[in-house]
Amino acid sequence: MAAANYYELLQIPPAASQQELRQAFRRLSKHYHPDTTKLPADQAQEGFRRLQQAYFTLSDAQRRGAYDASLKAKAMAPVPVRPAAVWSTPPAAVRPPSVRRALSGGEWFALLLLALAVVFSLVLGVGVAWVRGAALLREPSWWPANEQTASPSLSAAADAVPAAPPGAAVQPSAASPGAVAD
């Protein structure tokens, strides 16, 4: 991962197009991304950070021009002699901002299909409930507000008449005025 410049790091020529730059970044990011590599975590993070910084610099035309000018200036300047201790200390880590890209056509299509699936599921669920005659909105039986809002006269009348189990046929009693005798 020790490359002299960003072009060597990304393994592309200095005249590479934006498409070649993007492809090289994606190919190498799969190799160095901490979630997808078999490299040690520290080495993978450092490699991926350097890849991001290289891509961030070379993907923008203005930053790329300034970087190319600095490479030319370094090539023309004489190399200063430094002690070995200075070369061994790495510069302060500068984290580049995250690289954002526009969504591709396939990604937009996948989002459209996802939205259509959600809408279709909601319409289908409400439609089936409506056809079955189910109540779309009702308060749950465990909600304490039901007990507090019920009036005492209704709760006393409900206690006096036993409720029939669901699905049981209701039979008129002999004492009711509209009862028909057999």
Characterise the protein shown here.
- This protein is mainly alpha-helical and 182 residues long.
- Among the domains are: 6-88, Helix Hairpins, CATH 1.10.287.110; 103-142.
- It contains eight helices and no strands.
- The chain has helices spanning 6-10, 18-32, 41-59, 61-76, 84-88, 105-132, 145-149, 152-160.
- The mean pLDDT is 76.
What's the layout of helices and strands?
Layout: H1 6-10, H2 18-32, H3 41-59, H4 61-76, H5 84-88, H6 105-132, H7 145-149, H8 152-160
Helix pairs in contact: 2-3, 3-4
Structural class: mainly alpha
Largest sheet: none
User: SSE order in H/E notation?
Assistant: HHHHHHHH
Reported by name, the CATH topology of the domain at 6-88 is: Helix Hairpins
